Amino acid sequence: MQHNSNTSDATVSSISSSARTTRAFLFLALLSFVTCAGAHAQSQRSRGATAASPTPAPTPAPLLTRSTTRHETRRFGYGGTLTIHGAPEGSITVEAWPRNEVDVTADIELKGATEEELAALAAVNNFVLDEDGSHLSILTTGTHDRKFMKRAAKEFPKKLLALPWKIDYRIRVPAQLDLEIYAGRGALEIINTEGALSVNAGESQASLTLRGGDVVSTIAGGSLRLRVPANGWRGRGASIRLGRGDLTVELPASFNGDVDATLLRTGRVENNHPALLPRSGGGNNAPNPRQLRARAGSGGATLSLELGDGVLRITQLTSDEKKP
């Protein structure tokens, strides 16, 4: 009986040992599977991340810049007309002076990858003067003008057409000269001219210092400031239109004239001039935050102001800004 018991115990011990061995094997196999699966998933993620990461684009080489200044003078008497066709980019400053001459200074800035490209651009991006009796034109030529390029530069490399360039004009003219200005994007300043003035511009920071004239100005966007350093407008009046932005009019404290201001869409009209009071009459006199019909002093020529979106302000010109 004792022998049988020992045999039974040995058998149980053998079975238990075998079970433990089996469990250990299964655990090791499961651990190996999990480790391999994790490594495989990590490898897949790494490959996926590598595939998803775009190849960095090569950094373009910096462009070279060439700046030149050109100066031209033409005798041109009072009573003529000057037409300015500006560059797509660049400023225009026109100032009256006492001479019977039109004096033009142009700062031309070109950009290109090589000196050869700059030379090719310099041959087309420039300006010409066209004089016909009492009419003088400043015509900007360049890659923006398709008709000009087809006529004057048929073999011009197409890759150069999109390169940036600009011309900044500084022009002095007789005060009584009539002006027509077509500008692109850039600052615009007109100082003390007294003839008829027509302005058409894109995006601009415009400043007009005028005592009179027959003025029509239309600017798409940006800012426009009209300063009138005189107690009355000399001429039929002015029509100032700005599509969007800030339109500011500065008038002397003793100004005599009428102001019609209209806001077409969003924004506000601010009258901060103490002598500019609403005109009486006209039916409904209820205040309109988008419209102002006002008179300063004894009245006079009308300044018509129109703004699409933005702020239209009318303020008093300070004494130190008023020129004699």
List the helices and strands and how they pair.
Blueprint: H1 2-52, E1 64-75, E2 81-85, E3 92-97, E4 101-112, H2 115-122, E5 126-132, E6 135-141, H3 146-152, E7 165-174, E8 178-182, E9 186-191, E10 197-209, E11 212-227, E12 234-251, E13 257-263, E14 267-271, E15 276-278, E16 291-296, E17 302-316
Parallel strand pairs: 2-6, 2-8, 3-7, 3-9, 8-10, 9-10, 10-11, 11-12, 12-17, 13-17, 14-17
Antiparallel strand pairs: 1-4, 4-7, 5-6, 13-16, 15-16
Question: What attributes does this structure have?
Answer:
20% helix; 17 strands; 47% strand; alpha/beta; 324 residues; 17-stranded mixed sheet; disordered N terminus; 2 domains; single chain
Radius of gyration: 38 Å
How many structurally independent domains?
A: 2
Taking pLDDT < 50 over at least 5 consecutive residues as the criterion, the unreliable ranges are 1-51
The H/E string reads HEEEEHEEHEEEEEEEEEEE
Distance between the termini: 139 Å
> What average pLDDT do the residues reach?
84
Shape: globular
Total number of beta strands: 17
Count the DSSP helices: 3
Structure class = alpha/beta
Q: Largest sheet at a glance?
A: 17 strands, mixed
Helical content stands at 10-25%
